[in-house]
Amino acid sequence: MLVRPATNEDAEAVFEMLGDFATSYVPERAAFDRSYPAIVARQEGELLVAEDNRGVVGYILAADMATLFANGPVTELLELYVKPSSRGEGIGKSLVGTAVRGASQRGAVEVTVPTRRARGFYLAMGFESTAEYFKVRPVDAGFREQ
């Protein structure tokens, strides 16, 4: 198994997995096609894929953010997905490990991950629970300034 930076040629495999990963959103192909090449090319984080003799079997998306509070950049692991047929083989751990090492090489002072479903996975890897995430879509009527 090889973990490597994603390329534009991996788009089909990543989009297929994205459809299974996303539970709160429905991935739209046109939006994906606009975003994917920019994500592959950017320097503020990384998109990695795990590949074995079956092809691309997983991916992770990490984004670097400048912060004031943490005294340096923070890397957030935004998406991690491994195909069900490949789970239990250490692929997720390899993707996270490679992303954390990359964050360190880029100068990140901390790596964070928002998750509901994978709490135990990250705790077992040495992450600690530190925050609760909230979200609002800017176009939603649910946002209220007071």
Task: List the SSEs and their pairings.
Blueprint: E1 2-5, H1 11-21, H2 29-41, E2 45-52, E3 55-65, E4 74-82, H3 91-105, E5 110-112, H4 119-124
Parallel strand pairs: 4-5
Antiparallel strand pairs: 1-2, 2-3, 3-4
SS strand fraction:
15-25%
**CATH fold descriptor:** Aminopeptidase
Dominant shape? globular
> Over all CA atoms, what is the radius of gyration?
16 Å
| CATH class label | Alpha Beta
Count of extended strands: 5
Query: What structural class do helix, strand and pairing data support?
Result: alpha+beta
Largest sheet: 5 strands, mixed
Alpha plus pi helix count: 4
Walk across the major sheet and give the strand order: 1-2-3-4-5
| Residues in helices, as a percent range | 25-40%
> Uncertain regions: pLDDT < 50 for 5+ in a row?
none
CATH superfamily: Gcn5-related N-acetyltransferase (GNAT)
Distance between the termini: 52 Å
Q: Identify the CATH architecture.
A: 3-Layer(aba) Sandwich
Mean pLDDT: 92
What does this molecule look like?
This protein is an alpha+beta fold and 146 residues long. It has one domain: Aminopeptidase (3-Layer(aba) Sandwich). The protein is 31% helix and 24% strand. It is built from four helices and five strands, in the order E-H-H-E-E-E-H-E-H. It has helices spanning 11-21, 29-41, 91-105, 119-124, and strands at residues 2-5, 45-52, 55-65, 74-82, 110-112. It has a five-stranded mixed beta sheet. A hairpin with a 2-residue loop joins strand 2 (45-52) and strand 3. The protein starts with a strand and ends in a 22-residue tail after the last helix. The mean pLDDT is 92.
